Amino acid sequence: MHCIPTYLSKDSSYPYKNTSLGEVLQQKGINALWEERGTAIDTLVIHAISAIERTKTSPHDREEILSLFLEYEVSAHYLILRNGVCHALVPEEKKAWHCGKSIMPPPDNRHGVNAFSIGIELVGGEPGKPFTPAQYNSLVPLIKDICSRHSIQKILGHEDIAGSRAIKMGIRPDEKKDPGPNFNWKLLHGITSLLSQREDSIPL
């Protein structure tokens, strides 16, 4: 699976100089939006992202989305645009900041899911904007590729690790609901038997 390297850093290879994104980087003084990883990767987390609260006219624009990452100082390993183009934002061997305060579903119950997971962001997913066939066509081979290189034990949604359960346990103040009802988990059947325990995604 080919993804365009788009690392969010200020090194010489940074591809978005002289853009609003580069200006945000400079203003914040951010060198990178990741940390060293000291734990083996065994989980894959799927997210949805939109800049609808920033702009009504171009909420799915790549620059708006990347600027959103920088504004909130969050990141993910991969970003899949509406047209299916995949950007590799953070090296897999690094810990991206995509889960926030989080806990794995029982009986696992590990906290701090960033430490052992890879995060994939899909642009869109808000009401009236289901994910596109092109996005699924990129997501499926990406997941296969990740699973071929890591001992992935679980594929989860952000909502599974940072949702209502995390709030009830006092782990986080806000509930994450992505990728939400617009994500078709059933399309992942046949790829892997590692899907999360969901009514709409029963493991094979």
Automatic annotation (TrEMBL):
InterPro entries for this protein: Amidase/PGRP_sf (IPR036505), Amidase_domain (IPR002502), NAMLAA_amidase_2 (IPR051206)
Protein name in the entry: N-acetylmuramoyl-L-alanine amidase
Start and end residues of each N-acetylmuramoyl-L-alanine amidase domain: 29-180
Classification via PANTHER family: N-ACETYLMURAMOYL-L-ALANINE AMIDASE AMID
Record keyword Hydrolase present: yes
Any one biological process term the GO annotation gives: peptidoglycan catabolic process
Pfam family name, one: Amidase_2
Residues spanning the membrane: none
Listed GO MF terms: N-acetylmuramoyl-L-alanine amidase activity
Reactions mediated catalytically: Hydrolyzes the link between N-acetylmuramoyl residues and L-amino acid residues in certain cell-wall glycopeptides
EC number in record: 3.5.1.28
Keyword line: Cell wall biogenesis/degradation, Hydrolase
Keyword Protein transport: no
